[in-house]
Amino acid sequence: MPRMTMIEAIRDAMHVTMAQDPNVVVFGEDVGYFGGVFRCTQGLQQKFGRSRCFDAPINESGIIGAAVGMAAYGLRPCVEIQFADYVYPGYDQIVSEAARLRYRSNGDFTAPLTIRMPTGGGIHGGQTHSQSPEALFTHVSGLKTVVPSNPYDAKGLLIASIEDDDPVIFLEPKRLYNGPFDGHHDRPVTPWAKHPLGDVPEGHYTVPLGKAVVRRPGKAVTVLAYGTMVHVAEAAAEETGIDAEVIDLRTLLPLDLDTITTSVTKTGRCVVVHEATLTSGFGAELCALVQEHCFYSLEKPIARVAGWDTPYPHAQEWDYFPGPKRIGEALINAMEG
Amino acid sequence: MSDSIPLSLQVPEPEVRPGGKPDFSGVNIPRAGTVRRPDVDASPADFRDLGYTIIRVLNRDGEAVGPWAGALNDEQALQGLRDMMKVRAFDARMLMAQRQGKTSFYMQCLGEEAISCAFQHALSPGDMNFPTYRQQGLLVAGGYPLVDMMCQIFSNERDPLHGRQLPVMYSSKDHGFFSISGNLGTQYIQAVGWAMASAIKGDTRIAAGWIGDGSTAESDFHAALVFASTYKAPVVLNIVNNQWAISTFQGIARGGSGTFAARGHGFGIPSLRVDGNDYLAVYAVAQWAIERARRNLGPTVVEYVTYRVAAHSTSDDPSAYRPKEESDAWPLGDPIERLKNYLIGKGVWSDDRHAQFAAEVEAEVLAAQKDAEKHGTLHSGGKPSVRDMFEGVYKDMPPHLRRQRQQAGV
Question: Of A5, A7, A270, A335, which is least surrounded by CB within 10 A?
Fold first, then answer.
């Protein structure tokens, strides 16, 4: 089985869908000839031609608005927003248009498009290249929001997203593009080639939207995580020696509540982690659901470990980033009493 | 810097406010028939002047004159008159229905009927409009059933949109009418995307975007022009300049630009300005722009110069911000009267036939209303099901919505 980085897996997903379906088109800033600033679309223009993969003007509402029109026509656009931090000019097109088109027209028109965006921190990107805006999308009726944590899932989830008949926000944790990252920024980077989930099958396969996976089985405490934080949480469990069960949510909406409640009912303890800022983050929704569905199983209050409620800083990145130390402390605390 | 004078903010104001005497002397209106008609494949740089003038066909004597005349035969022009009269009668009935509490909201297009009615007839089956809320004429001229429009307005049990959308935000793919968002300007760029898709697929269909003078200030207007210009999308970008964006006069959106049409020039998009109250001119210009798109020559910006005679919506009272007499003073007249006079002059119409048709169309609208009301109005009779409120958010209902539907007990 080929070994792929997350970049190669994402590229392969687009390659597979474009080859299978002439209605799949790819465009965005720098994605054409150059192949994207992270190289995710490299070679697609050469292979499929300029009308299937092309550069767009620097205008996010234009990129997403045009994609809505194309999707309404019958295409399946898969557009790239260069950084999730740049999506805000296109937010109206996502919230008021793509997300509601099926509903408001009673199915007369639909918007089957995928919006890919590199998300999260860990690359010294400062406040304009590090944000994690997933909660701004999970709050919107009509959208699906996906965050892969490894090459295998990234390819299977992206193919499933492109083939989905509803608009999908596909957030790619950019710190994971070239290797798993456990939060120890001072250690050498591990490549995906050395990780089992860097094994990516050739050709078409999907990872279904709305299905979480237990990444690390355990009995003591449930950790709910997605994206980069899956790896950081696994490291925290190893380093504290706490038998944590780490759940990789993979899709935030629709959410796989069954996998969550099964685990928390078993462990009786729950720690929710994400890179995004704490207040009104997706973790708040997770906490509410866990207490609603698992209240009588809980031994301790649910804990949250998240980015501080500040803009994402540059020099203080590793004080901001919820690393294995902070998660480890939360695990230890969750086990007390 | 001690000799600097203090800066001051300059905020444009319309010529006249309530109590003042309407004055349109600043609107430069050329005589009908005097504006040239370039070939559709002419270089845009060679007819930039057409973005600053007004293309007109019908003169004061009701004659069709000049190089843009002759696009329609008598039967087509008669159809245009009937369409416009139907739209006007429909608007009047629905305005009354709103006043009677049968719906929450209504928007007329009084005085602007020629624009959408004529444009629709210049399109071909398969083309797609991305309309604003003031292009009901596209549906009426396209033969969409009045009763279906009314059921949507009443949000009743037969509402094609199942009560999910505000009144007048119709959707009909079969009639080339994209679902109206209600947000302003967002659909202009979608029209460009739709047109790009047609070009990507190698099809022959073209798109038409619609926007009002006020909404040209939205970022999406500029996004649309950039994308249309870059990819030479087969799209007609229509700007309906009816002088008023609720209470805000067109000068606030236009700023220092000479005309709205001239905005296209900066993008290298050919731009025409046309008398929006002249059915024959609107049709001729629409046909020209649509042919350009169809021949893969790229986008065209068309500004329709018109006047919003009625209030913005049933929630608006224009007497608070503009003189009541202003619409009577509007120098381009009334589109129905002008086409009527033309047809009478041609000997194919008469005052009697006009009165007779007005009565017929009134009866048709009334009958449609009776039919629609059998299925309910906003506050009485048949309603869309509450259970249906949870449908159609996604293609397949996800678990959290199923739980919420259960909670709602429906």
Answer: A335
CB neighbour class for A183 (10 Å; exposed up to 12, middle 13-18, buried from 19): buried
* Rounded Cα distance, A27 and B227, in Å: 12
B326 to chain A, minimum CA–CA distance in Å?
A: 35
**Alpha-carbon gap: A45 to the closest alpha carbon of chain B (Å):** 14
Task: Test A253 with B398 for CB contact under 8 angstroms.
Answer: yes
Contact A284, A252 (CB under 8 A): no
Taken in order of first residue, the domains within chain A and their CATH numbers are 6-198 (3.40.50.970), 213-335 (3.40.50.920)
B282 and B115 in contact (C-beta within 8 Å)? yes
Residue pLDDT tens, chain B, 410 long: 568 999 999 999 998 999 999 989 888 999 999 999 999 999 999 999 999 999 999 999 999 999 999 999 999 999 999 999 999 999 999 999 999 999 999 999 999 999 999 999 999 999 999 999 999 999 999 999 999 999 999 999 999 999 999 999 999 999 999 999 999 999 999 999 999 999 999 999 999 999 999 999 999 999 999 999 999 999 999 999 999 999 999 999 999 888 999 999 999 999 999 999 999 999 999 999 999 999 999 999 999 999 999 999 999 999 999 999 999 999 999 999 999 999 999 999 999 999 999 999 999 999 999 999 999 999 999 999 999 999 999 999 999 999 999 999 99
**CA-to-CA distance for B280 and B69, rounded, in angstroms?**
7
Question: Are A105 and A72 within 8 A, CB to CB?
Answer: no
Q: Which of A24, A29, A60, A70 should one mutate to test binding to chain B, selecting the residue with the greatest count of B CBs within 10 A?
A: A70
B394/A101 touch (CB, cutoff 8 Å), yes or no: no
Q: How far apart are CA B283 and CA B275, in angstroms?
A: 11
Q: Which domains does chain B have, with CATH numbers?
A: 44-245+254-312+327-379 (3.40.50.970)
Measuring CA to CA, which residue among B202, B301, B194, B162 is closest to residue A97?
A: B194
> Which chain B residues are closer than 8 Å to A66 by Cβ?
189-190, 192-193, 196, 227
Q: Which residues contact A298 (CB under 8 A, 6 or more apart)?
A: A264, A268, A269, A270, A290, A291
B-chain residues near A163 (CB < 8 A): none
ipTM value, please give it.
Answer: 0.97
Note the Cα A4 to chain centre separation in Å: 18
Find the closest chain B residue to A143 by CA distance.
B394
Q: What are phi and psi of A53, to 5 degrees?
A: -145, 115
Write down the residue that tokens 């009927």 correspond to.
Answer: B113
Is-contact A153 A146, C-beta < 8 A? no
User: Around Cβ B61, how many Cβ atoms within 10 Å?
Assistant: 10
**Contact partners, residue B143, CB within 8 Å, separation at least 6:** B175
* A232 vs A210: CA distance, rounded Å: 22
If residue B221 lies in a helix (H) or strand (E), which one and from where to where?
Answer: helix B219-231
**CB interface of B with A, residues 219-278, below 8 Å:** 219-220, 222-224, 226-227, 230
Shortest Cα distance, chain B CAs vs residue A142, angstroms: 5
What is the secondary structure of B31-92 as a DSSP string?
Answer: PTT-S----TTS-GGGGGGGGTS-B--B-TTS-B-STT--SS-HHHHHHHHHHHHHHHHHHH
Residue B91, token pair as written in the block: 């608007």
* Three-state DSSP string of A103-164: HHCCCCCCCCCEEEEEECCCCCCHHHCCCCCHHHHHCCCCCEEECCCCHHHHHHHHHHHHHC
The tokens of B59 are what? Answer: 């003169």
Dihedral sign, Cα of residue A135, residue A136, residue A138, residue A143: negative
Residue of A nearest to B230 (CA): A57
Q: Which pLDDT belongs to residue B1? A: 57
Q: How many helices (H) and strands (E) does chain B have?
A: 12, 7
Q: Across B59-206, where does the E strand assignment appear?
A: 128-130
